[in-house]
Specification:
It is built from 12 helices and 15 strands. It has about 375 residues and is α/β, with parallel strands linked by helices. The protein is elongated, with a radius of gyration of 33 Å.
Length: about 375
């Protein structure tokens, strides 16, 4: 085929693909077409002459020993016995190859139509592979798109650039309702590709990663990695906890994240249907970290047991009886989040003596925690 390089450059430019990959796809299309319309048992090679810009399709025949099993196989046409080969060239040896040129144009309209389909197929696969790599790299990042439809299972389909993604009902915040035309933000959770359905992108608005990415958009210090989100946990639409630390002694990680009068954290909360977000300063000291994540409860003491290797981490949290309801939270939400973000199974133990304690005692416990924190800061 003449001017094949011009065709390759045109396709590469139109589809935004690397010319070398397009070239390989075109060569594969020629080989597959030859197998379809000439002989499926032949071995073919497609080569492109850079100077003449032409593509040559050659049947490749391999020389084998006279008693080689390949001569009796289904692919026998791809082989020639040494004796037969020497009739054409006395110097030929076992393992040598020679080529017979073929032209698909000699096989008429059927070959032309078959080649067209093969080229379309392989270029489309190349486009899909390129897009797959592109979106695979976006897993864990925020994508924005327009709602195109909502099916009977309440899965929301969102158009993003050149692909359509799905936001399953399970990955929507409780109470959210989307309609066609809405602009939706979500984090890319999963990207798959298969021959039947092409690229499939699944989004999520319930993942803790979505919260983290929203914060990175609102808080420049997080985007610039001056403030780092070490851990996060969510009960979507209700409450979340994020553990932060700073890489700069000049920055308060909590203050930077919350913003003046809470403007930054409130903007994120609104996107999450007014989800309440607790900001906690991260520490590598487990007892201190657990005491912090149990906020707003005031904790008297924390004892940790087990090991991460054995998967049996447990924290015994001692607290005044009047702090127990705060520690547990509405419907157990506070202790669940504390356990999720810390990685510990948390057991609450009321302080000896029970009953409500005086305000002065509460303040005393606050001082105890402050003193504990000062030891590690």
């Amino acid at each position: 085929m003449e001017n094949i390089l011009d065709i390759i450059d045109s396709i590469a430019h139109e589809k935004g693909l690397p010319p070398e990959k397009v070239k390989e796809s075109i060569k594969t299309a020629f080989v597959q077409t030859a197998k379809r319309v000439i002989n499926p048992n032949y071995a073919y090679e497609a080569e492109i002459d850079e100077e003449t810009k032409t593509l040559m399709l050659n049947q490749v025949i391999t020389v084998v020993a006279d008693d080689a099993p390949e001569l009796e196989s289904e692919e026998a046409e791809a082989y020639m016995s040494l004796t037969e080969a020497k009739e054409n060239d006395d110097d030929i040896e076992v393992g040598d190859q020679f080529q017979i040129e073929h032209s698909l144009e000699d096989h008429g309209r059927t070959a032309a139509m078959s080649l067209h389909r093969e080229m379309e197929f392989h270029i489309q696969r190349l486009v899909e592979d390129d897009m797959f790599s592109k979106y695979k790299s976006k897993i864990g990042t925020i994508a924005t798109g327009r709602v195109t439809s909502v099916d009977q299972d309440q899965s929301t389909y969102i158009e993003m650039d050149e692909v359509r993604a799905v936001l399953p009902m399970k990955s929507r915040i409780k109470g959210e309702v989307f309609k066609v035309g809405d602009i939706v933000q979500a984090v890319v959770r999963r990207v798959n590709i298969d021959k039947a359905n092409g690229i499939q992108i699944e989004l999520s608005r319930t993942s803790p990663k979505f919260l983290e990415e929203l914060l990175a958009l609102e808080v420049p210090e997080i985007k610039d990695e001056l403030v780092v989100i070490e851990r996060s946990a969510r009960i979507p639409g209700e409450r979340a906890k994020i553990a932060l630390y700073t890489t700069s002694p000049k920055i308060d990680p909590i203050g930077a994240t919350v913003g003046v009068k809470g403007v930054r954290i409130n903007a994120v909360s609104e996107e999450l249907l007014n989800e309440s977000i607790d900001c906690i300063e991260y520490t590598t000291v487990p007892e201190l970290f657990i005491a912090r994540v149990m906020s707003p409860a005031i904790i008297s003491a924390v004892t940790v047991k087990g090991s991460e290797e054995e998967g049996n981490l447990k924290a015994i949290v001692t607290l005044p009886s009047d702090q127990k309801s705060k520690a547990i939270g509405k419907s157990g939400i506070n202790i669940r989040l504390a356990s999720m973000i810390s990685g510990y199974v948390i057991e609450l133990v009321e302080q000896d003596g029970g009953g409500a304690i005086e305000d002065s005692a509460v303040e005393e416990k606050k001082d105890d925690i402050s003193a504990l924190e000062s030891l590690f800061n």
